[in-house]
UniProtKB/TrEMBL annotation:
An annotated Gene Ontology molecular function: acetate kinase activity
EC number: 2.7.2.1
Native source organism of the sequence: Marinicauda pacifica
NCBIfam families, A to Z: ackA
Pathway the protein contributes to: Metabolic intermediate biosynthesis; acetyl-CoA biosynthesis; acetyl-CoA from acetate: step 1/2
Places the protein is found: Cytoplasm
Role description: Catalyzes the formation of acetyl phosphate from acetate and ATP. Can also catalyze the reverse reaction.
GO-annotated biological processes: acetate metabolic process; acetyl-CoA biosynthetic process
Binding locations of substrate: R84
InterPro entries named in the record: Ac/propionate_kinase, Aliphatic_acid_kin_short-chain, Aliphatic_acid_kinase_CS, ATPase_NBD
Binding site for ATP: K14, H196, L197, G198, S199, G200, D271, M272, R273, G316, I317, G318, E319, N320
Taxon lineage: Bacteria, Pseudomonadati, Pseudomonadota, Alphaproteobacteria, Maricaulales
Requisite cofactors: Mg(2+); Mn(2+)
Protein known as: Acetate kinase
Length: 382
């Protein structure tokens, strides 16, 4: 029997196939470039990766293609499918089976995750159609943060809004779950800031495995600048845009979610690699802004922890950009961060890149959200 994990995003669909105990991964795949020239990549247990160009695919077509490949591998041995769900609100504090009423409750959270939740729900619907006999489960990016203290969870608004669900939910929780566990294995229970730096970017403070705060809030819009999302912004600026620039709520949402961040600042590209290679003043200013915001958030989270023992870089930018890691760490020597230049440049999937004797251990660790989902699925189906 087999378990499958499915991460149905807006521009890519990631999937993995596991044995029924959720431990041994047999296949990992992704359909990327949805809406453009889509590509399929497959990595098997021998770590050999094959790639195939699929042409232009809609999101629905990409889902069908991904699930067809899963069917080819698993056949009738499919037991359960675990889905990554970005927003679980206040109610979903751990993974659940998708049974009566669950999807309706998740659909009600679409306004809080408009770029993610609809695609997550589309994955559930497609998987149910393709594998009607399989158990469907949901693992939530917000669940990890539900254990954070009240002061990290609230806004300074009248308390009734907190009771109604206006809270700092935090995101990328599946990644933080995996990474905090891995840090404990490598370093023991430490005061750690984890930097999940990808097209969506956030940071989280953990003491051992206990979350104490993160950079994202009610939605996945707050905190660090991202590929097309603005990150931290004065709410008064949003009110000004609506009141004086002619934007309605829909226009403001489009601006802040899809036209800002690296794309907006640079005047064109949201690709960190292109920005690093560009010599334009706009590109350099965009990089400097991103680095500055990262340093500020690390410092703030370190103060929450009352010190810093370990700093972890992960996700697409965090794992692959030696330049960004170097620039961020260059401004953190006062915190005890000392980088080994050679180790940073040659970092692999799991590499300690701090200098010998550095008071703070600095790591690059490839995240593995699929393994967390697979563990959840195995636990739910027994």
């Amino acid at each position: 029997m087999s378990l499958v994990t499915l991460n149905s995003g807006s521009s890519s669909i990631k999937f993995a196939l596991y044995d029924d105990d959720g431990r041994a991964r047999r296949l990992r795949g992704a359909v990327s470039g949805i809406g453009k020239t889509a590509k399929l990549s497959l990595t098997r247990t021998d770590q050999k990766t094959t790639e195939e160009t699929l042409g232009e695919l809609s999101h629905e077509q990409a889902l069908e293609y991904a699930l067809d490949r899963v069917h080819d591998e698993a056949g009738r041995q499919m037991r359960a499918i675990g889905h990554r769900i970005v927003h679980g609100g206040a109610a979903f504090t751990r993974a659940v089976r998708i049974e009566d009423g669950v999807e309706d409750r998740l659909r009600a959270l679409i306004p809080l995750a408009p770029s993610h939740q609809p695609h997550n729900l589309a994955g559930i619907e497609s998987a149910r159609t393709r594998f009607p006999g399989a158990v469907q489960t949901a693992s939530f990016d917000t669940a990890f943060h539900r254990a954070q203290p009240f002061v990290a969870d609230t806004y300074a608004l009248p308390r009734r809004y907190y009771d109604e669900g206006i809270r700092r939910y935090g995101f990328h929780g599946l990644s933080y779950d995996y990474l905090s566990h891995r840090v404990c294995e490598l370093e023991g229970e430490r005061r750690t800031v984890i930097a999940h730096l990808g097209s969506g970017a956030s940071m989280c403070a953990v003491n051992g495995r206990a979350p104490l705060g993160s950079t994202m809030g009610l939605t996945a819009l707050d905190g660090l600048p991202m590929s097309t999302r603005c990150g931290q912004i004065d709410p008064g600026a949003v009110l000004h845009l609506i009141g004086h620039e002619g934007l309605d709520a829909g226009g403001a949402s489009e601006l802040l979610y899809k036209q800002s961040g690296l794309k907006g600042l640079s005047g064109g590209t949201d690709d960190m690699r292109e920005l690093e290679e560009s010599g334009t003043a706009e590109a350099q200013e965009t990089l400097a802004y991103f680095v500055r915001r990262c340093r500020m958030e690390i410092a703030a989270l370190a103060s929450t922890l009352e010190g810093l023992d370990t700093l972890v870089f992960s996700a697409g930018i965090g794992e692959n950009s030696a330049f960004i890691r170097r620039e961020i760490c260059a401004g953190l020597s006062w915190l005890g961060v000392e980088l080994d230049a050679e180790a940073n440049t040659g970092a692999g999937r799991e590499t300690r890149i701090s200098a010998e004797g550095s008071p703070v251990a600095v790591w690059v660790i490839a995240t593995d959200e699929e393994s967390v989902i697979a563990r959840d699925v195995a636990g739910l189906i027994g």
